[in-house]
Amino acid sequence: MLRILYFAWLRDRLGRPGETLPLPPGVDSVAGLISQLHARGGAYAEIFGRPELIRVAVNQSFATNAATIAANDEIAFFPPVTGG
Amino acid sequence: MSRVTIRVQAEAFDSAHETTALLAGQTEVGGVGAFTGFVRGGGGLVALELEHYPGMTETMMRQIAESACTRFGLVGCTIIHRVGRLAVGMPIVLVLCASAHRGGALGATEFMMDWLKTHAPFWKREEFADGSTAWVAPRACDDAATARWGTLGA
Q: Which residues cross the membrane (chain B) (predicted)?
């Protein structure tokens, strides 16, 4: 199962800290997963329709939308970081 | 091997105590660069709520610290970052860099703060006196400051 995590205002907007789901058929990249999430409509469409606003990590490392993903990966979506 | 300490915690930190720990038994240190970040008030701000991505946060902090040690030849360094609700005036982050010379100590302190601000997965939510809240937006100047260092790898 994919483990998907949402942080900061993404979590607020989506109303959940994360979810688990099977790797959707035909999806093998972050970009593919973003299209699947976007297709859900509502807040998902608003957020994942603007990928320039979000950052992604695959297995706790920063990744690009071109990064490949596999079953059992941990994928996190979040806004640009603001610590320090 | 450089002495690297990384901590994410809700509790306050004591920079004097952390400096003593960083220096314990070291004889090659000529200076310690130190930065403490505080919750800056203004505009009705009451507090910040700091959230992070457990696991990835510590990994990124360690990468940043180890990269600084290699690049600046540090004897050791310490990064402590607080999470949770922090009122105006409270300390948020501590960076200490121990080096043989001042240049390395101060340069590494700036390097680590620049990378922490742009690559460690923390997010701040502002809480105002009227009860409203707002997520802090990233600042382009922080990205520009980090870009001058090139890549994180030493």
A: none
